[in-house]
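lol ok so funny story. i was supposed to be doing the assay writeup but got distracted and ended up predicting the structure for this chain instead. priorities right. anyway since i did it might as well share w the group, maybe its usefull for someone
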Amino acid sequence: MRYTLPLLVLFAMTTLAAAEDAKPAGDKVEKITYEDHVRPILREHCFNCHNQGDAKGGLNLESFGATLEGGASGEVVIPQDVESSRLFALINGDETPEMPPGQDPIAQEKRDIIAKWIELGALENSGSKAAVKKKSGLAMSGPVTTGKPEGPAAMPEGLWKAPVLDLDSSGAITAMAHSPWAPLVAIAGQKQIALYNTDTLKLLGVIPYPQGIPYILRFSRNGEVLMAGGGRGGYAGSVTLFNVRNGKPLVTVGDEYDAVLAADVSPDLSRVALGGPQRLIRIYSTADGSLLHEVKKHTDWVTSIAYSPDGVLLASADRSNGLFVWEAETAREYMNLQGHKQSINAVSWQPDSNVLASASSDNDVKLWAMIDGKNIKSFGAHGGGSEWVSYTHDGRMVTAGRDKVAKVWAGDGKELARTPGFADLTLRSCFNHDGTKIVVGDWTGEIRVYQIEGMKELGKLKAVTPTYDEMIASLQTEIGTFDKAAADTGAAAAAAKTAFDNHLAAIENTKTASNNAKAAMDAAAKKIEELKKAIADSEAKQKQQEQEAAAKDADAKKWAGEIAKAEQSLNQVNAKLADYGKKIQEKSSVLTSSKNAQAEHQKQLDELKKQLASQQQAMEAAKKKVADLDAKIAEAIKQKETTPDDQKESKQKEIDSFNGEKSAAQAEVDKFAAEAKKSTGAIAAKDAELKKDAEQIAAAEAEVKQLQEETNKANAEKANAEKAIATAKQNKQTADTQLASAKSAIEAAKKAKEDAAKETGNQQNLIKKYDDDMKKQAEQLKKLEEAKPNVEKAMNDQAAAAKAAADKAAAAKAELEALKKEMADFAAYPAKLQAEQQAMLTGIKTQEQQVAEAAAQQAEMEKKMQEKLDQIAKLQAELDKVMEEKSAVYAQLREHKQKVEAGTDEMATAQAKLEELKRQAELLQNLYQ
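and the output, tada:
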């Protein structure tokens, strides 16, 4: 009702503005109408299924009025809004199921006509005029009640991290919620709620939930309070509000006979609304736990409840597609929203409280305008069913569903991003506090955290929280990684420092090299003159030695022929050895490959045998489950016979539930039996492969042995050839020595001449090179000076990275020490409670003794007083004196009474504290035994 006046004024203003915008520019715009253009297309492709006599999905397209009225899922044509018109989305293939079914898509030109018809106002005939464009209501408007706290957002402080139960797996994620203002996500588990930091993915603490399993978690608008609703199915249910900072329960409301499946706390924390299998909505006061309202409108299990962010409305949904909005203050019905075809699994409010989103097993997420209750948008979010929907501060939504993914949507229902697939259907999803990440949990208990941009997986969280020992072991592993990173970055920083020092040295070296090049260029010019004289001397010596060399050449040629013959024989032997070596290497490679394959096949056989054992064990467990369910069914049938008639239906539902579980368990037995059979066949096949491997290895080893024998024979031939070569080479060496002696002088003279000529050219080249070097060094010096700031920056960046890595390692080590201390404190906590309890018992006994003594003193005083009164009766003459004594006695009596009363009060206080210590000790024992 809060919308009436301000929204009517806003509606009037926007209508006037829209009317101005909607004025046609002229009469030349061609009209596209239902009668003239659209109906013929629909008649050809759609009337077979969507006519007055057979309106599938409740949609009749035979007339203009019926077309605009829409079908069971709401309006399908939104004039002037093609994107929101589901009729066009279906025929264009943008949504499923694509229409028309079983036929080719409607031709593009026909689809263009329908799109243009909607865009121009969806006119009925040539005489129709376009209406004012309808407002979708999807954009957020009006004040958004954020509830953002003024100070730091609430985060857990000093909570124990020990798990309540030591479990191997969590099963399906039943509940999840993220703080609206802090990097804090709460995840439901068995008898506990795990709190994680979504920036660091670290476990912050565990809140015990002895009531059973939390099926709904919600943070208060300011993030200071965490609401948990749940319990034990068919036994008990309630809702508890916890202080987020210390994890202590603030208040518990409700005493249901079944688990609470849906609940929410009002923005002002004054009320809690809850519901579940009892088909009721109960609203409790958090001040005194009293029941304020009881709503009996739902006809099936209540599956979702949510207060609007401004606290004015309350939405509730059930398993039979019932969706209602109530006045939060009075619990009177405000709206009955009809359109979903199957159970509604979740509802969520747009931050401005003007739009309600609902997710259903019929695949759709629908958006409802609170100004008139109309379905302003409907989109197929998840094939197979939508399990969850949740808004964030800026109006985006995140959903989860049976197609095994989570998706992020714009406020108008446009898909923005989706996660990679999970192993099973996704059940819960939520944004983090700043809307940059999402947390998603599935049926198997897997929880992933994604950065929305690029949908990058940041890590995983665990509903089954680790023990202190497991956390310490994990942290010790991380510390090893951090220490290595610190060492690596430290080395990189040292290398960067060395690079900077080298850069400075290069600058100085370049300057020195430039000076050296100038001096070398001058020295080269001087040396050229000396080399010209050396060339003339070498030419004279060369001519004299050439005559002596001719006589020494004949002997060398003779022995060269002998060597050639022997080397030819050696080459033939070497070729034979190379061929044998190649073949041995090939066969050895085959032998190694066969042995590797044999080892791999043996490993695969061992894995298959382990797999078969696991499958057989799982099959036996499933068979036991079937037997247990048979016993439960028999017991339930027996109980049904003695159950009153008005409760038989409930008992039958229980029997049906057991039958459903039995069918699922029997399916598991069949599945595991089939898998075991398949594994047995695979083992037999793998045994055959191993036998074949052994045969191949034996054949290869025989071939290698034969080749090695041939190699030994060839090595003997090679030794003979090498001996002949050695003899011939020794004789040739003598001849060569004599020839070399003769040629040496020739070559010496020639070389001296060539060297002098070459050196002359070298010196001339050096002069040019030194000149070029001086120019290059000047350019290099300029580049080095320009690059110096970048090298220095790289050095500073690496130093900063090294410091950050060292700080991270130090922080992890500090965290490890803190975790060890916390584990020790947790282990000592029961003894501490017991010691405090014993101290309180001792104090109470002392107080009791003091009270007894005071009571004895009081009795003695009363006895003395009675004696005095007796004396007064006998001795009237001494009345005044006795009265004075009486007053003194009364004064002492009052004093002792005060002591008795004070002692009693202290004893009562101590007794209360003792009871609280007993309660904490019992809770600790029950939760962590």
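The two ends are 53 Å apart (CA to CA). Confidence is low (pLDDT under 50) at residues 1-28, 132-136.
back to the writeup now i swear
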